[in-house]
């Protein structure tokens, strides 16, 4: 049975992508964030993204962006999520924030509603412990940009039921995606490897081993990567990178996850990457 109504919590880069993808696959979406200003910005970005996507898919008949946007309800009120059959949470990688969000969701949503955490590193089992429905909590780690990435890293928490996994896979199929199911561990598979790679690449810049463009070029030309680690960092957001590596450092108590001081300095300076207009690159110009 098709899932009709999906809640999306968080209108940042990932939340915008998830909401857009859902609306483009004929789902009714309830996008929730803390301010009207954030939601207004999200609405404009989704509209621009749809038009941009249509520009590159000229051979396909594109749906009117306004029709797609009409399927998304933008709100600061969690109360509207009471009608959601499935909720995808995309809040920042801070446990105190996530814990509060799940307490609200647990109180508002029907008992049968599945909650999916679109998290980079936080334990799905820990998230489940913040609710009264641990069997209905699953990790769904989407890749950016969401509408263009066909694969999702799915994470089974300790209590996640087979029924929840089946429901999550069905929703992904409706979105035109597949899921690879892995077990719960901080950082899971993708970010346990990727965050170390990015963090070490930033150490290379700090230690003046190579320039930004040289580091990225080595990965693209020697290994065939579409993007280098520092370009990837700018795409994800350096603040998100720092949050994720700090979670890994705290979780494993292993010095190999120590955040690079240069990464901390850039985040303190507001150099978050693409979303702030400045990171390791400024409009493709290395700093």
Automatic annotation (TrEMBL):
Residues 6-184 form the 3-hydroxyacyl-CoA dehydrogenase NAD binding domain. It comes from the Bacteria. Keywords: Oxidoreductase. Pathway: Lipid metabolism; butanoate metabolism. InterPro entries: 3-OHacyl-CoA_DH, 3-OHacyl-CoA_DH_NAD-bd, 3HC_DH_C, 6-PGluconate_DH-like_C_sf, 6PGD_dom2, NAD(P)-bd_dom_sf. Residues 187-283 form the 3-hydroxyacyl-CoA dehydrogenase C-terminal domain. Pfam families: 3HCDH, 3HCDH_N. The keyword Plastid does not apply. Belongs to the 3-hydroxyacyl-CoA dehydrogenase family. This is 3-hydroxybutyryl-CoA dehydrogenase. It comes from Brasilonema bromeliae SPC951.
């Amino acid at each position: 049975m098709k899932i009709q109504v999906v809640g999306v919590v968080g209108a940042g880069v990932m939340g915008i992508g998830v909401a857009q993808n859902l609306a483009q696959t004929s789902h009714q979406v309830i996008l929730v964030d803390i301010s009207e200003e954030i939601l207004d910005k999200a609405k404009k970005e989704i509209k621009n993204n749809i038009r941009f996507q249509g520009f590159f898919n000229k051979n396909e008949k594109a749906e009117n962006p306004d029709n797609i946007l009409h399927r998304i309800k933008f709100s600061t009120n969690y109360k509207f999520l009471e009608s959601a059959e499935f909720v995808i949470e995309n809040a920042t990688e801070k446990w105190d924030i996530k814990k509060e969000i799940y307490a609200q969701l647990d109180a508002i949503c029907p008992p049968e509603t599945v909650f999916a955490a679109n998290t980079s590193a936080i334990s799905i089992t820990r998230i489940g412990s913040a609710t009264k429905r641990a069997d209905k909590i699953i990790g769904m780690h989407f890749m950016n940009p969401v509408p263009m990435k066909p694969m999702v890293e799915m994470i089974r928490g300790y209590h996640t039921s087979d029924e929840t996994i089946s429901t999550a896979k069905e929703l992904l199929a409706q979105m035109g995606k597949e899921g690879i199911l892995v077990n719960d561990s901080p950082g899971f598979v993708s970010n346990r490897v990727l965050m170390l790679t990015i963090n070490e690449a930033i150490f290379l810049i700090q230690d003046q081993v190579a320039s930004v463009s040289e580091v990225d070029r080595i990965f693209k030309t020697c290994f065939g990567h579409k993007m280098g680690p520092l370009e990837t960092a700018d795409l994800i957001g350096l603040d998100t990178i720092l949050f994720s590596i700090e979670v890994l450092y705290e979780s494993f108590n292993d010095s190999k996850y120590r955040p690079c001081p240069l990464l901390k300095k850039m985040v303190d300076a507001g150099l978050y990457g693409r979303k702030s207009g400045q990171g390791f690159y400024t409009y493709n110009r290395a700093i």
